[in-house]
Amino acid sequence: MTEKLREKANNLPLLPGVYIMKNDRGEVIYVGKAKLLKNRVVSYFRGEHLPKVEAMVQKVSDFDVVVAQSEFEALVLENSLIKRHMPYYNILLRDDKGYPFIRLDTKSEYPTFSIAPKTASDGAKYFGPFGGRSVTFDVISTISKALQLPTCSRKFPKDIGKARPCLNKHMGACRGYCLPETDAAQYKPSIAAAEMILNGKIDSLKKDLTKQMEAAAEALHFETAAQFRDRLRAIDALSNKQRVIATAYADMDVIGFYRGSRTCFSMLHYKDGNFAGKDFSLMDDPLEEDGEALSKFLSQYYGYRGTWAKSILIPREIEDAEDLSLLLSEVSGHRVTIEVPKRGDRRAMVENANVNAREEALRAANASQRRVKVLDLLQKTLELPEAPLRIESFDVSNTGNFGIVAAMTVFSSGVPLKRDYRKFRIKSTETQDDYASMFEAVYRRYARCIAGDAGFEDVPNLLLIDGGQAHTEIAARALSELGLSLPVFGMVKDDRHRTRALITAQGREISISTNQALFSFIGKIQEETHRFAIEYHRQLRSGTIASGLDKIPGVGSVRRNALLKHFKTIKAIKEAELRELAEIVPQNTARAVYEFYHAQEDG
């Protein structure tokens, strides 16, 4: 095979372009660019390589190339193909935290802020991105409190005067727009001020407010002047939090790089010469040499963030710095320079970024070593034939007979692998039956594994079932009917709902409460699986209710809950007679519910 591929590579042109390596199933496993396609591709099939490169080459059954008109065009094409195919051997920034944006709904009479995973052409304004959902929540909360904007779930103007103000009003964190007597004219100026802060224009905002305060004072409008003064003080109080906001609008990024047992890139963001925040990405050892790895990281990182500093300092020369600078300048709309400082303060900043990368990599390596020890201990404790590098865990969730679901989480090498999580809406029973639900979820998951369905191919080393012996026995039976034999254990809880022991399908208990590391690890799996199942159940519940009962005039939360409590399911409510409904809710509401569902049936 290698000889064939070498011969094919020898016929390639000495032109710039992109090469696409494929395995025997035709899947793209690596994408690269080259100044001279022939020289680069031939090198893969000639001579010795580092172990990771050799592992990739051994899996190559064929390759394609795309000739480009220039190295810049090859760079753009490479980025596009990596995003499309997500090849296994390329540097891939699979960042669970993401880089969310703050969305401002400008169409509303009372605009509100929310979190969005990405921008959209929907007329709203977007700010960011920021480093994770918790940071983004923190930004919204901090700005809202400083400007006394509401953070509650009330909708304005619909909810004005309908209820007493919440605690935020009494604490001075909100102006209390839910009160009819509150001056609504203050709302939009406060939103405008928040926009300026989110756009990084805090100094301009303070100057504007100072001018307005002084003008109001000169005109003897002292109450108005006091309002501007209070707003200025609130904005000054943001100074301790401003770094988290400025991170999204850094004008200089300093990149650090460390390659060890784990590889880490650190990104230090600076705004107006001041440190604004830090970001980092950990990954396994890249296939590429240091310079090429740095180049590929930069093109992906800024593609993920969607914002670009004006100046990027990097620790070493990269071959395509000019092309990458041109690409980032084109997509950002402003000039982006990439440079390698040789001396002075800027070089010291790069060295500091390198130190940060090293520390994060070492910290991750230590955490990884601890996880390896826990998995080794789990293997010995359960007498498993191999280390449980892939653990799959199942839980069932329902409310009576309503919204019966199951969920599966996956832990790979001791950490959650969220892209492999799966949800199951139970079909085999319409009444609460945890055993039937568990059987169906386990059976469906591994039947799809046997069928080779995409996303279900991987086989775990260990199954953990949320429940005791009976649940575990049911899961084992589902596997047996499929002809599979996998280690299955139930997670037995104590009176504080923590997993105190694991149990076999035959009823043998194995205590884990005496080993803190194992106890914490299994507890984490149990809590994550329970959370995921509950989240899916609530999502299903709210979606089903919103699509039915909440649309009926006269049915509020109290009457909706009363109906669900009595009839248990939406289906039972649909099938109820008018007199049965009238026993639970007033006659006019009962008639509205009855006519709503029967009119739908007639249509």
Keywords:
single chain; 603 residues; alpha+beta; GIY-YIG endonuclease; 5 domains; eight-stranded mixed β-sheet; five-stranded mixed β-sheet; 20 helices; 19 strands; 46% helix
Q: What topology emerges from the helices and strands here?
A:
Blueprint: H1 2-10, E1 17-22, E2 28-34, H2 37-44, H3 51-59, E3 62-67, H4 71-85, E4 101-104, E5 113-116, E6 125-127, H5 133-146, H6 167-170, H7 187-198, H8 202-218, H9 222-236, H10 242-246, E7 252-259, E8 263-271, E9 274-283, H11 290-305, E10 311-313, H12 321-332, E11 337-339, H13 344-382, E12 390-399, E13 402-412, E14 415-416, E15 422-425, H14 434-451, E16 462-466, H15 469-481, E17 488-493, E18 499-503, E19 509-511, H16 516-546, H17 557-567, H18 570-575, H19 578-582, H20 587-602
Parallel strand pairs: 7-10, 10-11, 12-16, 16-17
Antiparallel strand pairs: 1-2, 1-3, 4-5, 4-6, 7-8, 8-9, 12-13, 13-14, 13-15, 17-18, 18-19
Helix pairs in contact: 1-2, 4-12, 8-9, 14-15
